[in-house]
TrEMBL record:
Entry-linked PROSITE patterns: PDZ
Pfam families referenced in this protein's UniProt entry, alphabetically: PDZ
Record-given protein name: PDZ domain-containing protein
Domain PDZ: 20-96
Species of the source: Hemiselmis andersenii
InterPro entries noted in UniProt: PDZ, PDZ_sf
SUPFAM superfamilies: PDZ domain-like (SSF50156)
Record lineage: Eukaryota, Cryptophyceae, Cryptomonadales, Hemiselmidaceae, Hemiselmis
Length: 130
């Protein structure tokens, strides 16, 4: 799951072709970088446990390595984080005072709270019929 600052968390349906790793990434125009603005509860990033809010995203590697620069567009970052369920997204991040580190997260389904209620929905199941 990938969110810009203007979106809210919502469950991914089973028929979705792409999914994410449970990160909300935003662009800091003053520092010219992309940073982790949120981590979805129960998502791949939270389960891994190494990424924290405020970490700076430097590189995304899928089939190719994508080095993020000040001119990189947020939509480009979104496309590189999203991918097929169970595929792996590798990222290099930096934490102020701690240096760089790499994570490899498997994209997949996880539970998120919807914006309209505090109830959670399992992302791998479609919603119940009305």
């Amino acid at each position: 799951l990938f969110l810009t600052s203007h979106q809210t968390l919502h469950p991914l349906m089973a028929e979705s072709t792409f999914c994410g790793v449970g990160l909300k990434v935003e662009k800091d125009r003053q520092r010219n970088c992309f940073y982790i603005a949120g981590i979805a509860p129960g998502g791949p990033a939270e389960r891994d446990g190494r990424i924290q809010e405020g970490d700076v995203l430097l590189v995304i590697t899928n089939k190719h390595q994508h080095v993020l620069t000040p001119s990189t567009d947020i939509e480009y970052v979104k496309k590189k984080i999203m991918g097929a369920p169970r595929s792996v997204c590798r990222m290099v991040l930096a934490r102020p005072g701690s240096g760089k580190f790499e994570v490899a997260l498997q994209r997949g389904a996880f539970t998120v709270a919807t914006a309209s209620s505090s109830a959670s929905s399992t992302a791998s199941r479609p919603p119940p019929a009305a």
